[in-house]
Structure formats: structure tokens, C-alpha cells
Amino acid sequence: MRNIERPSLKTVLQTTTVAGLAAVMLASGIPAQIIQSYAAPVTVTAPQAPSFADVVSAVSPAVVSVRVQSDAKVASNDDSNFSFNFGGPGFDQLPDDHPLKRFFREFGGQMPGGPGDRNQDRAERGGPRERDRGDNRPHRLRPTAQGSGFFISEDGYLVTNNHVVSDGSAYTVVMNDGTELEAKLVGKDSRTDLAVLKVDASSRKFTYVSFADDSKVRVGDWVVAVGNPFGLGGTVTSGIVSARGRDIGSGPYDDYIQVDAAVNRGNSGGPTFNLSGEVVGINTAIFSPSGGNVGIAFAIPASVAKEVVNDLIKDGKVERGWLGVQIQPVNQDIADSLGLKEASGALVVAPQEGSPGQKAGIKEGDVITAVNGQPIKDARDLAKRVAAFGPNSKVDVDLWRDGKKQTLPVTLGNLQSDEAAAATPKEPDAPAPSSDKALADLGITVAPAEDGSGLSVTDVDPDSEAAARGLKTGEKIVSVNNRKVENAADIGKVIEQARKDGRTRALFQVESGGNSRFVALPINEG
To answer: Annotated catalytic residue: which of 193, 214, 260, 336?
Structure first.
């Protein structure tokens, strides 16, 4: 007797299902074949992020890397200044055209496991070699800096930072296609950190870019930075304008645009573009506790750069008007002490001996409120406005003196050299903030100064407003509210008059270590 294997329940169900499906398909005229169905792939319809590709494609040929070399003696043939070691093998096995190998060569680092002969690298790349000048010591052009730059004319003028080229004696421009061209320094300006180089354009015309009207740049606008960070030329980063009018303490003409595009070492001198491909700023500094990008970078505004660059191309230097007065900001306390309605203008700490300001009659304690009828916002604003007039310009300077407005005609001097810049007065630190609470007394003890001029501070109450504002024992009070004081009674008389005039603060002129500053101290209401 034969044993017949019975089908399993699963087989029966599958057969029944397929047969039933086939019967339905036949009855409806559809060919009897099994059709498998799959779910559709996931798709999302969302707003598209802006692309910077068109801008980058257009401007990249105008952006270059700048190599700077200086002529220096070296003690040996090994001019390696430093080496890199990332703790792992294999860097010496990288191809010669690998970016990391180029990075090591450009920055002079010694490849882990390699000979580190940068002179040989230069020979292979056609770069400068040692030069024997007959003093039995090798001389060579040593790489000292790398930065970025950009062409502003088809005949080869390009812009970069002064701090990139300042110590150089030879300059090489590397274009985005790898072409290397020698450049000459046309001029540089340390105050705005700008420089102009020139490449010989006899055999070609260069793609160049133009400066934007940065007055139209708004916080929140998109920007694109192109440059040579860490020697990696042609690097593009993007971000937005984070702030305007930044003062980072680098000089009297600070007026930076802050951006959050990634900017690192080597980006200096490179352009920041708007979405129209115009240069809104030249990257010059970053804020970085770590040394790398943390999203805070500063660019010289196009309006500043355009004027300076034109002067450098025309004359090779920048000449500026010079007033010759030491100034400090006017805060609300100082304004109250002088009877000014607003905390604006620039307070004259002291005019320089023989300066145009002193010759015109400007005195310590004056507040400069306008130049040629244009209001002065603060000390920085005054420095920029005076510089813009140029040397030998005749201007009218509006002052606030003894509670009244006065106007003095001034013929500006010439501030053109770095040596003159060293003598330019710097803004002292602004007085420390204070409360509005009136004090029962000033919290200081004074005695006649040994030189017979002014009063020496012999004691300061550590809990007083004077101490909070930085007044210290040993300093000398020269005047109060622009009135010379020789004893404590003189201070009392001036303060009493200030109360009668309805003022809540008195302005003390304090000298220390040859420097002078003004401190506004609260006075009681009697």
C-alpha cells in the first residue's frame, strides 16, 4: 500500500489564494499572472536652501593665494621652523599632490618619517633656493606668511592685508588654476591693515571683482568668503552678517563688519562677497580662544577699503588729516557733569604740543561735538572724519566749553607715516560704570601736590564711587569741571557751583604716570 503525502495547511491556503486570484483575473479579462506591488519611496517637498554655486563660479578666478617670503640669513641648511606629528603613520606614503602633503610643504613642516627638505621641495617646484652672497653663510628667501587676496582690475592690481605682506621682500600670487605669478608691492597702510600688490599683465587680462556699497549691507544678509585657509587655496565658506560697526581695539579707524562664515588663518586679505558677487569686506581678523574658527570674524568694510586702495594705487601711501588731540569717549556721567544733553562727541583729554588743535585754541576738557557741521558720535567717529578730510584742509570744529557752544577754525596737519602714527594719541580706557546713587562725600583725601600744581590723592575709601571708578592713592587731581584746583576748598567751590547748576556729577581730570584722563564722580544734592 502506497503512502500518499498530504499537503500542509500553508500549501493548501497558498494554492487556494493563487487559484482564486487567477480565476478573478481570467473572469475580468486580465492575463493570469501574479503582479507584485511595492510601497513608493519617501519624498519630501520642502523649501530649497540657497545655493552659492553661481556666485562662487563667477568670483573664484579673481581670488588668489598670496605667498610672502623674506630675505634672511640662516645658521644651517635646515630651515625648518616647526614640524607636525599627528601621532599616526602613513603621511609619507601620501601622493605628492595630496592636499595634506602640499599643506606640510607650504607651511614648512617636516613630514613624519620624511626628510623634511623644504629646499629640495622648492627646487622641484621651481621656487627660490639658497643664494650665496659671499659671506660664507647661506641666504635664502624664507616663507614667512601666507594669505589671500583678490584682483580689482584686469591689469593685475590686487588687494590683501598689510599684516600678510608687511615683512616680505618677495611675493607670489597663486591663482585658482594653480598658475604662479610674481607680484610687486605697490603700497600698504598699517592703520587699516590694507595693501596693494601688482602682477605683470602684459600677457593676459585678469578676472576681477568690484567693491559693494556696504551701506546697504544689513545684519542677517548672506555672505560668502573665499580664500586660502591653512594653505588650502580656493576654499569657500558661507554665513551671514552678524553685526556692523565693530570696534575690536586694533586702531582709531575700527569699523568692522562681523560675519559668521568660517574664517581661519590664511583667509587674511581674502574677500567676503554678497550674493551679487561684490566685495562687501576684506577678512582681517578672527576672535578665537582656540586659534581656529568659532564663528566670529571681522572684515574691513568695502567703503573704507575702496578709498585706501585708490590712494595706494595713486600715490603708494595714504595721507590723512591730523588734529593732534588726545580724546576719550563721552559717557552719560561725563555728559551730565558738563551739562550736555546727550552722551555724544569726543572729550579732549589734552592737545599735543604744537599740534593743529592746540594752535587753533582747543583745550583740555573741551568736547568736540561737530566738524564742518557734521555731528560727532564718539571718539572713533572724530578720528575717521578728521582723517577723511586730508592734510591742510580747513575745517570748523564745534566745541562745548564752559556750558556753551563755540566754533573754532582749524587747519589740519598731515598724518601719513607710521612714525607719526606712533605719536598719535590713543584713547584711554573709559571710566568704569557707576551707580546713580549720590554719595555723602567723594570718598577721597587730598593734599597739595609736591610740584605745586594740583592735588595728590592721599587716600581713597575702598567703598566709595571714586574707588569703583579706579581713582588711586598717588594720583593727582588737576582740575574739576575744567577749573584748576590747588586745595580741597577749590574742589568744594566747584562742586557747590555744579549743584547750583543742577548737575549730579563733577568731572575730575586725573594725571598718573604722565597720562591724563577724566573721571565723572557723583555729587550729593546738598
So the answer is: 193
Based on the residue annotation, tell me whether 193 is a catalytic residue of this protein.
yes
In a domain? residue 161:
yes
Partnered with residue 476 across adjacent β-strands are 456, 511
User: Given 277, 293, 315, which residue is the final one in a domain?
Assistant: 315
Active site residue 98: no
Indicate whether 268 and 336 sit together in one domain: no
Number of domains, the chain? 4
Any domain includes 24? no
Q: How far apart are CA 192 and CA 186, in angstroms?
A: 16
Residue 474: give its domain's CATH number.
2.30.42.10
Burial of 244 by CB count in 10 Å (0-12 exposed, 13-18 middle, 19+ buried)?
middle
Catalytic residue among 65, 148, 163, 189: 163
Task: Based on the fold, state whether residues 66 and 169 are members of the same structural domain.
Answer: yes
Of these residues, 148, 238, 242, 268, which one is catalytic? 268
Final residue of a structural domain among 291, 315, 339: 315
Q: Are residues 141 and 127 in the same domain?
A: yes
pLDDT digits (tens, 9 = 90+) for 236-286: 999 999 999 888 766 677 889 999 999 998 999 999 999 999 999 999 988
More confident residue, 397 or 124: 397
Residue-wise pLDDT for 57-109, tens only, equals 999 999 999 999 887 544 333 332 233 333 333 444 445 554 545 544 554 44
Q: Does residue 393 share a domain with residue 295?
A: no
CA-CA-CA-CA dihedral for 234, 237, 238, 242, to nearest 10: -120
Q: Degrees (nearest 5) of the Cα angle 486, 487, 493?
A: 100
Residue 401 lies in a domain: yes
Whether residues 273 and 363 share a domain: the answer is: no
268 is catalytic: yes
From CA 521, how far away is CA 339, in angstroms rounded? 14
Say whether both 293 and 339 belong to one domain. Answer: no
Cα 511 to Cα 253: distance, rounded to the nearest angstrom: 26
- Residues 194 and 276 placed together within one structural domain of the fold: no
pLDDT in tens, 9-53: 454 444 444 445 444 444 455 555 555 667 889 888 877 777 999
CA dihedral for 92, 96, 100, 104, sign (positive or negative): positive
Its domain, for residue 168, covers: 62-199
Pick from 465, 454, 432, 434: nearest CA to 510 = 454
Q: Are 92 and 85 in contact (CB under 8 A)?
A: no
Q: Which pairs count as long-range contacts for 315-319, CB under 8 Å and 24+ apart, including other chains?
A: 315/187, 316/186, 316/187, 317/187, 317/189, 317/416, 318/187, 318/189, 318/191, 318/192, 318/416, 319/390, 319/391, 319/414, 319/415, 319/416
Residue 194: phi and psi, rounded to 5, are -120, 150
State how far the Cα of 225 lies from the Cα of 263, in Å rounded to an integer. 8
Fill in the DSSP letter of residue 304.
Answer: H
| One domain, residues 167 and 268 | no
Indicate if the alpha-carbon torsion angle 464, 469, 475, 476 is positive or negative: negative
Report if residue 32 sits inside a domain. no
